[in-house]
Amino acid sequence: MSALSIFETAQWQPHLNIPAPWHDWLTFTGSLSQRLQDTFQSLSVKLISQQWQPALLSEQKQLGIPEQQSAFIREVILCVCQQPVIYARTVIPAFTGLLSCQPLLSLDTEPLGKLLFTHASSKRNPNFQYAHFSHEQLQALPMPSTIAHSAINQDCWGRQSVFIINQRQLAVSELFLPTIFSLQQLT
Questions:
Q1: At 10, is the secondary structure helix, strand, or coil?
Q2: In angstroms, how far apart are the furthest CA atoms of the chain?
Q3: Residues facing 49 on adjacent strands
Q4: Do 11 and 131 form a contact (C-beta atoms < 8 A)?
Q5: Is residue 174 a known part of a binding site?
Q6: Which HAMAP family match (predicted)?
Q7: Does 74 carry a binding-site annotation?
Q8: Would the annotation count 112 as a binding residue?
Q9: Contact 131, 158 (CB under 8 A)
């Protein structure tokens, strides 16, 4: 199973019975990077990739991307105390004109939330989609070589949302890895 197939086969739904430990994180509408920084006093972003590539079929439908058109896709792992806590995938369609926003293309290891939650015209569509992922599925996630897949040994939940900047859309998918709770118990 590839990382892309995880997202393609996910059963994204607007309402699920999300277990209590996950609910608080999944329904949080503010900046996750700021919340992680505030909660753990630590945050780093490991860049997996940022490049032009075909969007997944579900992303094409979500954002209205023509089938033949590539999108700018950024994949990162948000880490706290060097532990992976969130996998994030951002999809920016070419036709939106958002790519003229140079900071979006050059984030590298900066958190996306730093830009989205400070941009004057940015707002998040409040209609989240949620999905459950087994730990077997998570083994296909791309990880930087410094992070072992064995650190991800439990199921997790994810969410998708759409941000609108200057009336143009981009999508963000976030998988909340179980390590977030073990680290939270230490705070």
A1: coil
A2: 47
A3: 75
A4: yes
A5: yes
A6: UbiC
A7: yes
A8: yes
A9: yes
